[in-house]
Amino acid sequence: MKLRSWQSKCINSAISKFTSSTNSSDLKKHFLALATPGAGKTIMAATLARKMYELGLIDLVLCFSPSSIVSSDFSDELTAQFKTEFNGKVGSLGDAFTYQKLGTLDNDTWKLFDRFRVFVIFDEIHHCAGSSTHDANAWGAPIIEIIRERAAYSIALTGTPWRSDSLPIALSTYCEDNMIQCDYVYGLKQAIADDVCRVPQVIAVDNNKIVVTKNKKQKVFKSFNTLLSAKATSYSHIVLNETVNEQVLSRAINKLNELRKINRNAGGLVVASSIEHAEDIKLLILKKYGKVSVVVTTNEIRPSDKIKDFRNSCDEWLISVGMVSEGTNIPRLQVCCNLTNVTTEMYFRQIFGRVLRKTGAPNQEAYMFMPAEPKLVSYARRMVQDIPDEVAKVKIVKMNEEIITNAEELTAVKTARNNTHILPEKHEVTVGNQSVEDIQRQIQIMLSNSYLGESEGTQAKELSSNHSGTNITEAKWSMGIVGKYRQETLKVADIEPFLISKASKAKLAELNQQLKQG
Questions:
Q1: From residue 239, how far is each of 339, 370, 380 by CA, in Å?
Q2: Is the separation of the CB atoms in 303 and 297 below 8 Å?
Q3: According to DSSP H, which parts of 290-361 are helical?
Q4: For residues 309 and 303, what is the distance between their CA atoms, to the nearest angstrom?
Q5: Beta strands in 78-172, from DSSP E residues, in sequence order
Q6: Which of 143, 199, 192 lies closest to 172, judged by CA?
Q7: 123: which residues sit within 8 A by CB, 6+ positions away?
Q8: For the chain, percent helix, then strand, then coil, each to nearest 5?
Q9: Is the four-CA dihedral 469, 405, 138, 418 of positive or negative sign?
Q10: For residues 368-373, average pLDDT
Q11: Identical fold at 5-192 and 198-391+481-517?
Q12: pLDDT value of residue 191
């Protein structure tokens, strides 16, 4: 398979750094690549590993990633590159793991670093925090304590090189102003110009009359922005509202129907807030639109198999709870509905990244439909910024004690833990060495396993949706969204030259129709 230009340049840059000197310092052994979601980081890293092996620089390859489906994809790609299995068994040249397995690897695995020259691939490295053992999270600690010194070489991949808690990313270096230093950068704007990624188009759905009744007193809000700014409710209440779901989904379904007239293989993704929410959406899509959808959550024994089945099918809709966000490769996805209550910029970009991968099929448009939550709107407008200014800098923590979270976070974790069941695949919460972001992510996993009732899970839901300051516990409270719905196609900065005109789209449809008839 022919490499894309950026992949070849990145590989050459990494090999150049690794072989430029006899100095074996940590900085020289590690390479950080920032590449936009959908650019092809998996193929690039696997090809680099093969070339390093052919150059006689390494003996084994180990790969770590945040989910089982991504780990499986890396194993498949490494197998294709090396033409041998990557499953850790006799005769293989390595293995692929999830980050959750880092804390459970046996001594025989760690001894490989002493006996062989091991090349380590870290996918979505931003999950692993820490500049030292004192501020590392559960996934960052073994990387800093063991792998950093004992690996022959390593490459870290990310499309979002920051953390919502502003902690430093493991193995990364930072300038004097605490901004991350990347060895290679391939941003979304460049990927669009190179025809590698689709042009992102975001449609925000809003309402002009929301009535909130509290203790018999009514307040009327003219948009979701004013509603949330007044802290009259949390975003969780909006995103779980049935009429909001209907309005967002109807627009997304109509768009996918249009796309499938030209590309019948195009698919759609809905990211839900909980398993119960996902099942509600599945029922809504079936009853209102007559469409069958596939739900994938952590409840499945082998969710990665279900994702692979959808990837290789022509099914229209996939509904996910925390399973199809970052790194998951389903290129035929072209429409997504963002109906999760998590409102961090990182998660927003990871979701949208699922529909940015280009294929050889006709009509390569990419759409996200979502409620007009103000933070999400701002994220959309600056999507082509590789590292947005607001998240660019980190807090370098210098301390000798463990990070202890505040009482509210402890309560939220305890509440979620008492009301949900965590599957063995997910790492358990160890508050003593986890950052706020890890706790937020863990709470989201908990919420995805079992929907928490309003009285039981308010704190957990509020924390994961970044509205922990909102308190809606009184029984005499209600919200009615009774106005007219409207949608706005958000202007994403600096991509106007790439947008296709309606005339061009019509011409494309006409040509494709002629090809079908011919």
A1: 6, 9, 18
A2: yes
A3: 303-311, 345-352
A4: 10
A5: 94-98, 118-123, 153-158
A6: 143
A7: 41, 42, 45, 63, 64, 65, 66, 70, 74, 157, 327
A8: 45, 20, 40
A9: negative
A10: 96
A11: yes
A12: 95
Return the residue matching tokens 């809606």: 472
Token pair 């402890």 in the structure block, residue: 410
Residues 86-137 pLDDT 10s = 988 888 899 999 999 988 888 889 999 999 999 999 999 999 999 888 888 9
CA-to-CA distance for 71 and 69, rounded, in angstroms?
A: 5
Level-2 CATH architecture, domain 5-192: 3-Layer(aba) Sandwich (3.40)
CA atoms within 13 A on the CB side of 144: 20
CA distances in angstroms from 263 to 203, 259, 266, 267, 406, listed in the order given: 21, 6, 6, 9, 50
- DSSP one-letter code for 358: -
Q: Is 34 helix (H, G, I), strand (E, B) or coil?
A: strand
Question: Which tokens belong to 247?
Answer: 């309005």
Q: When comparing pLDDT for 515 and 480, which is higher?
A: 480
Pairwise CA distance, residues 455 & 447, whole Å = 14
Contacts of 321 (CB under 8 A, 6+ apart): 271, 272, 273, 274, 275, 277, 278, 296, 297, 298, 448
Q: Which of 99, 159, 115, 147 is nearest to 434 (CA)?
A: 99
Could you identify the residue written with the tokens 């007559």?
290
- Both tokens of 298, joined, read 């952590």
Confidence of residue 325 (pLDDT cuts 50, 70, 90): low
pTM over 0.85: no
Ranges of each domain in the chain: 5-192, 198-391+481-517, 407-468
**Is 198-391+481-517 a CATH 3.10.360.10 domain?**
no
Contact 234, 400 (CB under 8 A): no
